[in-house]
Amino acid sequence: MELGRQVLDQQLVDRSDLNIGKVDGIVLELRDDGPPRVAAILTGGHILAGRLHPWIERLVSRLTRGWCPGDARPIRIPWSKVKKIGVDVKVDIAADEAMPWEHWVRDHILSRIPGA
Q1: How far apart are CA 92 and CA 97, in angstroms?
Q2: Which of 85, 90, 77, 79 minimizes the C-alpha distance to 2?
């Protein structure tokens, strides 16, 4: 329970100190010979929407399947890439690996706005 309180909804920061989103979920690995182990953290609108309500999750999934470029699955960051948990969660990945949707919006929508 402490892990959820310490990690969920915390800001994710990449190795260059860029904000790359929030921690929306935690993946646990069940083992026969011991307690569960944290395998990864997840970020993406699907996960947050599912925590709010199943109906909202279905709506978000439907919208992103229609509009999202390429793979619309949540980003899975292995627990081994988590370097520090404090005010935010620092991970050893580049922002480009964790934000394909944001880059698509920047390149295809925001760049077309005059003065952007």
Answers
A1: 11
A2: 85
Whole-angstrom CA distances from 104 to 13, 34, 80 are 20, 42, 27
pLDDT digits (tens, 9 = 90+) for 75-110: 889 999 999 998 899 999 988 776 666 677 777 788
Q: Residue written as tokens 């990449």?
A: 14
Q: How far apart are the first and last CA of the chain?
A: 43
Q: What is the pTM of this model?
A: 0.74
In the structure encoding, which two tokens stand for residue 52, read together? 């709010």
CA gap 66, 62 in Å, rounded: 6
Both tokens assigned to 108: 């295809």
Task: Specify the DSSP class assigned to residue 15.
Answer: T
- Structure-block tokens of residue 104: 């698509």
Residue 68 has a pLDDT of 62
